[in-house]
Amino acid sequence: MSKPRGVENSELDGDIQPELEDEIYLSGSFAFMPGLLEQWRVPGASITVVDGDRTESEGFGMAELGLTFFDSWTLCYAGDTSHAHVAALLALMIESGHYTDDKLRPLSWQTPICCLIREDFVLRDPWATDHTTLENIMHHQTGIARHSNAYMRYTRPDGFLGSRRVVTPRDIVRKLRYLPMAEDSGPFYRYSNLMFATLSHVIEKLTGQSLGDALRIGLWQPLRMTNTYLRLQDALDSGRNVARGYFWDTKKGEYIALPRITTEDLTGSGAVITSAEDLAKWIRFWLREEAPLSPAAHQTLRLGQIVYGDGGDAVPYGMPRLHAKGWRMLSYRGHRFWSHHGRVDAFGALVTFSPDLDFGVAVMGNTAFTSSAVAAIATLHLVEEKLGVPPAERKDWATKFQLIMQDVENYVRGGLDTLYPNRRAHPTLPPSVPLSKYAGVYYNQGYGYIMLTVVRTSDTESPANSQPQLSADLPDSRFHVKGDLVHVSGEEWFMYVDSKDAPILTMHDFAAVKFEIGRNGKAMSMGIEWRNRDLVDGWIWVITTYIRTSNRLPRPVSFMAHSGKRGAPRANSNGAGQGDFGSVYGSRYAVSELPSDDIPDAPMPPGTAYRMIKDELSLDNNPQLNLASFVSTYMEKEAEQLMTEAMSKNFIDYEEYPQTAEIHSRCARMIGSLFHAPKETSIGTSTVGSSEAIMLAVLAMKRRWKQQREAEGKPTDKPNLVMSSAVQVCWEKAARYFEIEEKYVNCTRARFVIDPKQAVDLCDENTIGIVAILGTTYTGAYEDVKAISDLLVKHESNVPIHVDAASGGFVAPFVRPELEWDFRVEKVVSINTSGHKYGLVYPGVGWVVWRSSEYLPSDLVFSINYLGADQTSFTLNFSKGASQVIGQYYQLIRLGKTGYRDIMRNLTEIADYLTNALREIGFVILSETSGRGLPLVAFRFPGKDEGEAEDADFDEFALALYLRARGWVVPAYTMAPETDKMKMMRIVVREDFSRSRCDLLIKDMKLCCHHLEQDSQQFIKRMEEHAQEHSVAKRKTNDPLNNPQHEHKVRSVGPYPSHGELTDTEQRVKHSLQGKTGKSHAVC
């Protein structure tokens, strides 16, 4: 084929470079970034610039060394920039007028926190407890000290040797009562992430949602920020690359990788994980004062009210510097800027914008302080570029930030002299007791557990002398704080503070330490004067909970085994404990083959079984990237909870679950009403998907035809069914199972739906019905139901129509309400639809509705006595769970017609957008647009008469394989029988296929087309042979339908030359879905 438009030959970090019009910030303007990353030892970073209507985003370096590049879609921890997200959400809640305090007063920025979470929010200062407001927290004006080291990641409800769990926002709030207020308590600025965790708890309590869900629904979805998350697991499940954090080990001269940290404990203080692409939308939201916030709310959030800092920073912002709600307000060369940094573990970020200039910059990288330095230097450079600052007047920002780093190091190295300036003027007293008497586990209700061990300085990295000393470890702290203690005199000590996992400059500090010795000659308490540079958090006294007799901690399993508690963990056969302290991967199951043929004799611990199966299932594709399927892959958590709670209900037991049966009836009536079914006569039921619904409809048509023929004394041995060759495979199954001849109206290269005239002409006295499809499997086109009906009426035929609306039944009524395809059409007697497709329910529910009981013969309706109750049943299945019906009812009342209409119109808009993008690349579009068909895109490469190169050595199947390597499942297949030389591909636009995800697909589509052109014909051929071998040949090995005993005669009609009667096997080979790709159900 000819090279797709918009695809260039140049590559950068494996990404196709699209043609760009003249923009202010092209890739060349970011040319300084690679050198900056190398200078500051940062593996990778992303940057985005918003300048008026123009946006440029790009990635540099590695998101994960040796594995993935950093690009503009790479997900990265945004740290404290999360504060602005919380601020915007609170402003939205305040504006809504839906929330009140415990005295029913409307929520406002002046609402005291104690009036929102009274039982949880208690500070040491009673006045502060009663008067601290939402606005106070936003401005860091609460009177509490910073207490960064008190920010816990875990809590241990059962004591130090018990199991630990991740803290909740409520856990964090309830620790505030144990933390000292600042020495300068009052209306002074004291930065506090603990207080932003408090706001998280407030939001969750008021909304009844998790903070992540509240942000997603209230802010991120309206802003189309679909690449932003609050939980690490959600980010990993998205299918996008999540950056890994690093630090540069100066001794080893290499990067040290750190594990990706969970974010549940960070909440609103720093849990946001996002990409440069989404940050561009975030910046534009603030620049343009966009909805969902009003302009007045934007202005309130940006209003600077609290002065902070002393003007001594290296950055050039003028004074006064003010703190707004979630932002810091600064000025540079007469222009106002709003900015906020973000640092967490091994990540740094900076977001800056200026509405006056309609300009903003965001930078994120995967180290701690050095990424922050890169972000600041890059931002200042781009700001100066925007302002046109002459080169001679620009600062050497890199040197200034290097001096900041050096100042911090010098500050810490001089800490001993700072705290004990006169220590050399007095004799040094030795410790009161041997060092081993200090070792042990200490506890404070605000700071949790601290473990002390005896080490030598050579084992640590603190700038101390070589004498033996103590080492402190806060194992549950957010930053895994460690401290190396140097003896000063008597019971006075000095502690160098840092992070145990990685050296983080912001954690690099020191503290004074004191011990109190008990009468038994052992340390009974330890006091630590925690500080944040020159600001003192106050003295924290921790009490001894267990004193060690050696440097080794007691083994938790042994301790609990002797505690006499029930359920103490036991060691398994290979010595791995199976309780709280046992590791799945340290157990024998990790080196054993999972059962595959026989049920095992011995039980397996539930956690182990879960992990083993979960690991195996991780090899499946990501459902959200499976664009082959119409089946829903997203439901709200409330719906999931309802469905989970209903899993144990057997739907067929109407007597025991009468309300479930009532809900089922409501759903059937609602869906019948949607299809304009007569309210007085219509009848319907749920099924396990449309396949069962179709089976029921076919049975009803056949039985009704048979009864009519028997009444006329005519034979009933040759029923037939007329349908398009584009039907879904379940129609073929129904015909074979119920011994019905299939009469096909074949598709052509110009027509992918049934021809109404040919369909009616095929009908005879043995025709039980005509099938019309509202959204074909191949192209999503709607077949003309009314035209078929009108011809039947004209011919005075009594042949009924069944509409297969499996996919279109929940689309057409909302996108094209004027289209007549349902019970408004005279000859339509039954309709099926799939609740688990565009009905937006997880797999396992379909619906079938008849115009009246006249079309559902009574001998298909069974009266049964089940568990003592008389009830009727006319489904093929019997026992089944009630979950899917409950899920359907939730969606119907939760979304309503307006909700469904909004979703379906959005999907149609995205499908049209994707259609235009693929047409621009050079593909031939086979599907309809503007709601004339399903929200999908069917396309193919151009043929030789449409610009295809004569020597093209790849096709749609090769493109599908390349896309699969990028994580996308986009099926390639051939058209229906008699047109099966036409190859095509199809992308289904589902509810969770957002515009941003669509852009990612388009980008990868261009990339794969580019690589296809470069790869050899021989390589493509090998891949296709491999795919064919594994997708068809192996599936047929044990296929009972390949048995000659099951040969079945099929007749075909249409404009193509007749091939005579084909055997079942021959027909299956010709049928594109079953024979050509080996993907009959998955493609459908």
UniProtKB/TrEMBL annotation:
<dbReference type="Pfam" id="PF00144">
    <property type="entry name" value="Beta-lactamase"/>
</dbReference>
<feature type="compositionally biased region" description="Basic and acidic residues">
    <location>
        <begin position="1025"/>
        <end position="1038"/>
    </location>
</feature>
<dbReference type="GO" id="GO:0005829">
    <property type="term" value="C:cytosol"/>
</dbReference>
<dbReference type="InterPro" id="IPR015424">
    <property type="entry name" value="PyrdxlP-dep_Trfase"/>
</dbReference>
<dbReference type="GO" id="GO:0006538">
    <property type="term" value="P:L-glutamate catabolic process"/>
</dbReference>
<keyword id="KW-0663">Pyridoxal phosphate</keyword>
<dbReference type="GO" id="GO:0004351">
    <property type="term" value="F:glutamate decarboxylase activity"/>
</dbReference>
<feature type="domain" description="Peptidase S12 Pab87-related C-terminal">
    <location>
        <begin position="429"/>
        <end position="529"/>
    </location>
</feature>
<keyword id="KW-0210">Decarboxylase</keyword>
<feature type="region of interest" description="Disordered">
    <location>
        <begin position="1025"/>
        <end position="1084"/>
    </location>
</feature>
<dbReference type="GO" id="GO:0030170">
    <property type="term" value="F:pyridoxal phosphate binding"/>
</dbReference>
<dbReference type="InterPro" id="IPR001466">
    <property type="entry name" value="Beta-lactam-related"/>
</dbReference>
<dbReference type="Pfam" id="PF00282">
    <property type="entry name" value="Pyridoxal_deC"/>
</dbReference>
<feature type="modified residue" description="N6-(pyridoxal phosphate)lysine">
    <location>
        <position position="837"/>
    </location>
</feature>
<dbReference type="InterPro" id="IPR002129">
    <property type="entry name" value="PyrdxlP-dep_de-COase"/>
</dbReference>
<dbReference type="InterPro" id="IPR021860">
    <property type="entry name" value="Peptidase_S12_Pab87-rel_C"/>
</dbReference>
<dbReference type="InterPro" id="IPR015421">
    <property type="entry name" value="PyrdxlP-dep_Trfase_major"/>
</dbReference>
<protein>
    <recommendedName>
        <fullName>Glutamate decarboxylase</fullName>
        <ecNumber>4.1.1.15</ecNumber>
    </recommendedName>
</protein>
<keyword id="KW-0456">Lyase</keyword>
<dbReference type="InterPro" id="IPR012338">
    <property type="entry name" value="Beta-lactam/transpept-like"/>
</dbReference>
<feature type="domain" description="Beta-lactamase-related">
    <location>
        <begin position="36"/>
        <end position="373"/>
    </location>
</feature>
<dbReference type="InterPro" id="IPR010107">
    <property type="entry name" value="Glutamate_decarboxylase"/>
</dbReference>
<dbReference type="Pfam" id="PF11954">
    <property type="entry name" value="DUF3471"/>
</dbReference>
<comment type="similarity">
    <text>Belongs to the group II decarboxylase family.</text>
</comment>
